[in-house]
Design goal:
CATH architecture: Orthogonal Bundle
Structural class: mainly alpha
Number of helices: 6
Distance between the termini: 35 Å
Order of helices and strands: HHHEHHEEH
Shape: globular
Length: 129
């Protein structure tokens, strides 16, 4: 990203106002939530999953938080929820095209993180001293 593009992006980010006033801040807060990122990564890996499968794959998430996160992802257009009229009812979740684009951005971020982990760990250790 060039400096001009970065300055334009930062100009649109109003960190001094609440999320409702700054749409970028609002979307970032939602998308960069740890559960949201884990759900997107799990759905990206498995393509289609039922609720229980997502819960099993996202270690530590409560059913209530998983439901809330999936609803938010569905509301924002990142996840598609498909209900099958069977007995018992079957519900499946998968990423939409928009969700797949977000997944790619998460993978890009992970690509940046991996080579920097040793430095970050070293910095953390030095900070504690």
């Amino acid at each position: 990203m060039n400096d001009k593009r970065m300055q334009e992006m930062l100009a649109n980010l109003d960190v001094e106002n609440p999320s409702e006033v700054c749409p970028i801040k609002d979307v970032l807060a939602t998308m960069l939530d740890k559960w949201t990122m884990m759900i997107v990564l799990v759905l990206g890996k498995h393509k289609v999953l039922r609720f229980a499968d997502v819960k099993r794959s996202v270690v530590g998430i409560s059913p209530k938080m998983l439901t809330k996160s999936l609803r938010t992802l569905e509301r924002d257009g990142h996840v598609k929820r498909t209900v099958y009229p069977e007995v018992p009812i079957r519900v499946e979740y998968n990423l939409t095209d928009q969700g797949s684009i977000f997944l790619k951005k998460l993978v890009d971020l992970a690509d940046w993180i991996v080579p920097h982990v040793p430095t970050i760990v070293k910095n953390r250790e030095e900070f504690i001293k």
